[in-house]
Amino acid sequence: DILVDGKVCDCDIVVTCQVGDPVPLQVKLTNWSKHSVGPFALTMTPYQDYQNGVHNYDLQDAITFVGSNTFYIDAVKPTKDSVYFGALLFLYTGDFYLNIKFHEDNCSRELPLSWLCLPSVHIRATEPVA
Fold first, then answer.
1. 87 neighbors 65 (Cβ within 8 angstroms)
2. For 42-92, how does the pLDDT look when each residue is reduced to its tens digit (9 = 90+)?
3. Whole-angstrom Cα distance, residue 75 to residue 53?
4. Would you tell me which of 19, 20, 121, 128 could form a disulfide with 98, CB atoms 3.0–4.6 Å apart?
5. 11-31 residues labelled b (16+ CB within 10 A) or e (exposed)
6. Which residue, 86, 87, 98, is CA-closest to 124?
């Protein structure tokens, strides 16, 4: 589950926020398997989609994370949750997306480097209301 500013998000929802206000992020991972999973890392990467096949990931002047954009997870037990909190601060207006990936963080395992990608979250940063 992904929550942006307290609202559940999926690929069909556009979340609107204001430039200059921290936007709380919450990613909850639920392990529905019968075995513990981990260790792995959760990485959140913002980008802009130019709608022509080009994604701009060079956004250090437009977006900043409050805290880290990567969280390390030792293990998630069967039927349990692991919740990670962060925040984004938008410095300019525009339409942005957040790419969320879980990466294998154990060399002895044989999973691909990036083995679970969630649908991108669409966030629209607007001017503050005067």
1. yes
2. 888 899 988 888 889 999 889 999 888 888 888 888 888 888 888 999 999
3. 36
4. 121
5. eeeebebeeeebbebbbebeb
6. 98
